[in-house]
């Protein structure tokens, strides 16, 4: 039964560039009918001792990033690898070894466990301590060394590994992957809601990672006004484009941003701070709670959470300020290179 549900779920993920809600079901290509999907299901449904030994032996590699693994050991296969921090801590993460030259290290994922919760348990990228102006930083995980979750559950729960603060990087890649999709299918292009990367080495200007960037631009309630946002960086699309990005957000939101960017530390009208506006740059209006993620510890009472107000006019309603169901029900995977 579970196997059939997985087949049905993944089969709905093959549409590229437009909202699923706008396409008749007769036009959706069933990904479960492709050779690649069949081969992967066969590989992962039985014990392949040769492959398990190969994956396990990756722990003897010594590198601090997937970029170093690719350069030093010529690793070119997407999947789970072991990395070592500067202090010698060994941890597992996912490496994208193929996109735009490869070498991308997964360092975090933002997963909304309950769109109806308002800064409750599970909202690690905003606040799990309630909507409280006396705790303006919330959980503070954008700029601390806390780690949580596991790489295999990064589309089912929040994830943050030591690479978030340990790796010195130049660029970022972002994947929006449907909630609960198993790791072995993440790199199928048809499975992505949105995928893009930067290529102007912007992180060199901000300490080399998000940990340092958010020290410069704190994700904190009342830290500034609408005009005090952080950098907005041009992106290169790996799946999607400017128009499909625009359509992933609500009709009202589309009047407030320009697609084709990733923006850091946006502040809304109520002076609540959000960490990342994925795929867009706020330009006017500043109701960023409807299209930016993460945050500090206090918002308007109807806006608090990791996806602060993506459901404002009904979950997945694709109307008013509500983001699309595809965007709301996808984890945001953050990579460095």
From TrEMBL:
<protein>
    <submittedName>
        <fullName>Intelectin 3</fullName>
    </submittedName>
</protein>
<dbReference type="InterPro" id="IPR014716">
    <property type="entry name" value="Fibrinogen_a/b/g_C_1"/>
</dbReference>
<keyword id="KW-0732">Signal</keyword>
<dbReference type="GO" id="GO:0046872">
    <property type="term" value="F:metal ion binding"/>
</dbReference>
<dbReference type="InterPro" id="IPR002181">
    <property type="entry name" value="Fibrinogen_a/b/g_C_dom"/>
</dbReference>
<keyword id="KW-1015">Disulfide bond</keyword>
<dbReference type="GO" id="GO:0005615">
    <property type="term" value="C:extracellular space"/>
</dbReference>
<dbReference type="GO" id="GO:0070492">
    <property type="term" value="F:oligosaccharide binding"/>
</dbReference>
<feature type="domain" description="Fibrinogen C-terminal">
    <location>
        <begin position="57"/>
        <end position="107"/>
    </location>
</feature>
<feature type="signal peptide">
    <location>
        <begin position="1"/>
        <end position="21"/>
    </location>
</feature>
<keyword id="KW-0106">Calcium</keyword>
<dbReference type="InterPro" id="IPR036056">
    <property type="entry name" value="Fibrinogen-like_C"/>
</dbReference>
<keyword id="KW-0430">Lectin</keyword>
<keyword id="KW-0479">Metal-binding</keyword>
